[in-house]
Structure formats: C-alpha cells, structure tokens
Design a protein that fits this description.
InterPro entries: AGE/CE. GO terms for molecular function: mannose-6-phosphate isomerase activity. Its EC number is 5.3.1.8. It comes from Candidatus Vallotiella hemipterorum. This protein has two domains: 215 residues, Glycosyltransferase, CATH 1.50.10.10; 157 residues, Glycosyltransferase (Alpha/alpha barrel), CATH 1.50.10. The longest helix is centred in the first third of the chain and has 24 residues. The protein starts with a helix and ends with a helix. By secondary structure, it is mainly alpha-helical. 44% of the residues are buried.
Length: 377
C-alpha cells in the first residue's frame, strides 16, 4: 500500500473514532440534557464521577463547532440555543465566562478567549447550518470585541471585569491567536474585506509585541515579560493559520518569522523518537515543561498538512514527521476506545486522564485540516 493510501486509512480511522466514540459520548453521558450543555469534563471509565461546579460558554461553543462540522444538526441546534439563552450578560453586554451547576451566572469576567470562540462557533454553525440567528450573534459579539477589548496600541486585552471598565489581564498571544482564527472563519461566512485589513493589522502587532527575534517564535506574553515561555504547539498553530490563508498573510513578515518558529519548535520541541510535542520551551530551546498535551499534537499534524512545510524541514527529521506516522503515533499514544488521554509524559505515562469538553474541537480541527489537504492531492 503506498504512502498516500496508508495516510488515507489513518484519516478514515480518525473519522471513525470521532463519529463512533467522541460524538456519541458527548451527546449522552457528557451532556446535561436538562440544561442543554456539555459537562465541563467527564471521567474515564473506572474513575470516580467528577462533581459538576460550572458550565463554560467556551466549552459550549467549541462543541457547537464539533457537532456542526459532523452534521449532527439537531444536537448543534440545542447547543446554539443553550449558548444564547444561558451565557449572555443582559446587564452589561457580552458573555459571562461560566454558569454554576444550577444555571446561574458564576464567573462573570469578560475574557477575549470566550468572545473569540463565540465568533468562531457562530461562523462555523452558520456555514454548516445556514441559521441567520448565528450571524446576528456573530455581529453583536464582534461589536463587543472591537469596542471593549481593543487597546490603544491596536491589540486586545485578554480579560476585563464584568462591566468592561477594569483590565484584569492585558494582551496575551493565545486569545489573540484564537481571535485571528475566529476572524478567518467569519471572513469566510461574511466575505467582508474588513476582516482582511484587521487580520493584517493583528499580524503586524504580533510581530511588534510578541515575536522573539532570535528564534522567530511567538511568546505567550509580550516581549519584556520574564521568564520567556515558548509553546511549540502554539507556533505550529500560528503557522497553520497563516500559511493556510496566503491571500491574507502572504505579504506579512509574520509568515517569515513563523517559518523560523516552526523550525525552532521542530528542532527542540518535538521528540525525534516518538514525535511527541512538549508543552513549553525557553528561548534557548531547553524544555521547561516536558508533558505532552493532546492539543499540541493536533496542531503539529495541522502544520504538516501545509504543502510547503517540507521545505522548512531538515533532512534529519524527514523520516520522523510524515503525516502517516504522526497519525499512527497519535492513535497509539492518545486515543482510547472510550475517548482519549488528555496529557502524557514523554514516556507515555498518563498525566491527566479526565476528558475536558473543549478537547474534541482540537481533534476535529485536525481532521478537517487533513481532509482539506488530501482533497487537494
């Protein structure tokens, strides 16, 4: 069997795992039917049942994306209805971070991460379902982001108080990256050139405030904060998002920096033996968190789907990083017949065994990237 066919088999196996394991779990025992919401996390078989203390808007909207892409429209419709009826802050606007086990507001801070995912989820729900209400919700959330979270430098604060008046956390790369992802999806849904201009502006601000010049990597906090932390998974994620939209980012220097970030992360953050992506490095390439989280593996696989990726890969790694091999490793090390393992050590010992409701988003975005890449071949 040639490599293309072997890879196709691995992709089909991933699809089968999503459709026969992940979706059924999160529409049954992972779902509170009374509230119409996914539990924040569920235990693996044989483990104690986890207490329910909250439901997050971000978890709801990530699952909205997952079930929309899968074509489970009835479940997606329920998630969308729960999202807009349970998490909106009717006093100050925007979205509450979470509600408690009874459905009352719990954490009422306003965070960019959640608002970005509302835009992303609504755009994807509209794309797959055609529900006009999703576009309306996208528009209103977009207005909140652009009028409340923006800074005078052109970036976005990460966390604000409930009334938006107090900055709790300033700009951080991860919420801004997911805002970029959300705006890319919204651009596909709305075909508005405003998103092109805004995304290019974000790219320039990321270069100015977050790119570590010696490595090209995007740091978690703005340059100047210590200690400096580089997460390989986020470098691969940025690489994929920008390389996948050359019409927007082709002329941005961010693409050049991310080529360097990709190589740095591959050289120091990916095991040549297992293909495992570690959690974090410092600026010298020393591993400061060796645990391997599932989401980082999916971002590496997404990066590998970019057709030009091999141009940046040293020959020493070529035999270790094919998509076929990475998918086989991912299946063996992270997937289980009941779902998945969230985090492991470099030696594959389990670090975190419970399953967060936010993780299927990572698995499905990886699958979608694989399907898109192989449709082009």
């Amino acid at each position: 069997m040639n490599q293309l066919n072997c890879t196709s088999v691995r992709i089909d196996e991933l699809n089968q795992h999503i459709s026969s394991v992940i979706l059924p779990v999160w529409s049954t025992r992972g779902f509170n039917d009374a509230l119409g919401l996914p539990y924040d996390r569920i235990s693996a078989p044989g483990q104690p049942i986890l207490p329910t203390t909250r439901y997050r808007a971000m978890a709801c909207v990530r699952q909205l994306y997952v079930f929309s892409v899968a074509g489970w429209h009835n479940h997606a419709d329920r998630l969308f209805e729960s999202l807009r009826t349970r998490f909106l802050d009717t006093t100050y606007g925007g979205w509450n971070y979470s509600i408690d086990a009874q459905g009352a507001p719990k954490e009422t801070k306003k965070d960019l991460y959640t608002h970005a995912f509302i835009v992303f989820g609504c755009a994807e729900y509209f794309r797959h379902r055609g529900t006009r209400d999703a576009l309306d919700l996208l528009e209103s959330t977009l207005h909140v982001i652009e009028t409340r979270f923006t800074t005078h430098t052109g970036l976005y604060n990460a966390v604000l108080s409930r009334d938006f008046r107090t900055v709790i956390d300033g700009p951080r790369q991860n919420p801004i990256m997911h805002l970029s992802e959300a705006y890319l999806s919204a651009c596909d849904a709305r075909h508005d050139t405003w998103f092109f201009d805004t995304l290019r502006s974000i790219a320039e601000q990321i270069i100015t405030k977050f790119v570590h010049r010696p490595t090209g990597c995007i740091t978690e906090l703005p340059i100047g904060y210590s200690p400096l932390r580089i997460e390989p998974g986020h470098q691969f994620e940025w690489f994929y998002l920008t390389a996948n939209k050359p019409d927007i980012f082709r002329h941005s220097d961010l693409s050049t920096w991310l080529n360097s970030a990709y190589m740095f992360s591959l050289r120091y953050g990916v095991s040549p033996y297992t293909g495992g992506v570690c959690t974090a490095l410092n600026e010298y390439g020393h591993i400061i968190d060796s645990n391997e989280r599932l989401w980082a593996q999916t971002e590496f696989c997404r990066a590998l789907t970019i057709s030009k990726t091999p141009n940046f890969v040293c020959k020493i790694y070529n035999s270790h990083i094919s998509i076929k091999i990475q998918l086989s490793r991912f299946k063996k090390r992270f997937l289980r017949d009941y779902g998945w393992v969230e985090s492991i050590t470099k030696d594959s010992a389990i670090v975190r065994i419970d399953m967060p409701s936010t993780t299927p988003y990572h698995i499905v975005t990886m699958y979608s990237a694989l399907i898109t890449a192989y449709q082009k071949i």
